[in-house]
Design a protein that fits this description.
The protein is of the alpha+beta class. 54% of the residues lie in helices and 14% in strands. The chain contains six helices and seven strands.
């Protein structure tokens, strides 16, 4: 989908491009990709790079255009991992600024006319627009990290009583999310540093906005690293917990087998087809059953005193 706005932030949507406009492209079709190449003169290699899910963040400057690629967090409901990261490309030219992403996201949601309306002011330059994208990205990283922490806490409660690997698999998916976040925020931090030091745009940067974006990104990186370290230790600990829980279950089953073996053994002895002193007694059956139950009860008492039950 392609939307064209008169100014940054999407305050006024227009039908055709004009100087200084912002073009937001989300999940383009084959025809829209062709339009990006023919009408907007976007190089095909750049389009392919941005639409590559594994593309790393970077900055490129040419005589007539500039390109900034960052990685942003998105929700994922298909592959079992709740969150992952994808590239968001910002293409700057003399006539327009174009943002391109391969799926809808919270940084530049395509269904909202203005993702920056809460700022109550129009964004007038492309560089500070990019910094706001980094700032929003850091906020969304922090939001998703809190959700990951909450989901991890719920998994911990199930792990304490679990004897299966299902909960460990869930925890592993949370760990994957954190690895995605750590690698992406580290790469975004490098891009922000390059923007700060590049002479071509240094005079245009709002230092306060750049500092805020770097702080948010660094905070997201540190939180992801902390959560990742905690989960790594947690997975090792709960792997032992699951093994111990399984040992307890096997121990209980073994004790039940021993208790049930006592009456089975007595019944086997007196059920042999050989003479014994009780074959003519009317009280043989009740006596044997009572004796078997008493021995089983005695076995239970012994196991209880040893704290095996």
């Amino acid at each position: 989908m392609i939307k064209i706005f008169k100014t940054f932030g999407g305050y006024s949507e227009i039908s055709k491009t004009e100087k200084g406009c912002w073009i937001n492209v989300i999940k383009p079709t084959a025809d829209e990709i062709q339009r990006l190449s023919s009408e907007f003169k976007l190089p095909t290699d750049i389009i392919d790079d941005i639409l590559d899910a594994d593309e790393r963040p970077r900055v490129e400057f040419d005589d007539t255009w500039s390109l900034i690629i960052m990685r942003i967090p998105v929700e994922s409901k298909n592959n079992g991992v709740p969150f992952h990261t994808i590239p968001l490309g910002v293409f700057l030219s003399a006539n327009f600024t174009l943002t391109l992403c391969l799926q809808n996201n919270e940084i530049l949601p395509i269904e909202k006319q203005s993702p920056f309306r809460e700022q109550y002011q129009q964004i007038t330059d492309s560089i500070n627009f990019i910094l706001r994208l980094f700032l929003r990205s850091g906020n969304v990283y922090l939001k998703y990290l809190k959700q990951i922490n909450q989901q991890t806490a719920l998994i911990e409660q199930d792990l304490e009583k679990s004897i299966k690997n299902r909960e460990l698999n869930k925890l592993l998916k949370m760990e994957k999310c954190l690895v995605y976040f750590i690698t992406s925020t580290k790469a975004n931090e490098i891009v922000l540093s390059k923007l700060r030091n590049y002479n071509k745009i240094t005079n245009e940067i709002n230092e306060d906005l750049l500092e805020d974006a770097m702080i948010e990104n660094k905070q997201a990186l540190e939180m992801a690293q902390i959560y990742s370290d905690i989960q790594s230790g947690m997975m090792d600990a709960f792997a032992s917990v699951i093994s111990n829980n399984l040992n307890v279950v096997m121990k209980q089953l073994t004790l039940f087998s021993i208790i049930l073996m006592i009456p089975t053994l007595i019944a086997s002895i007196f059920g042999m087809n050989v003479p014994n002193f009780m074959e003519n007694s009317n009280w043989a059956m009740p006596s044997i059953i009572t004796f078997s139950l008493l021995l089983s009860f005695l076995g239970v008492i012994i196991f209880r005193k040893k704290h095996w039950f």
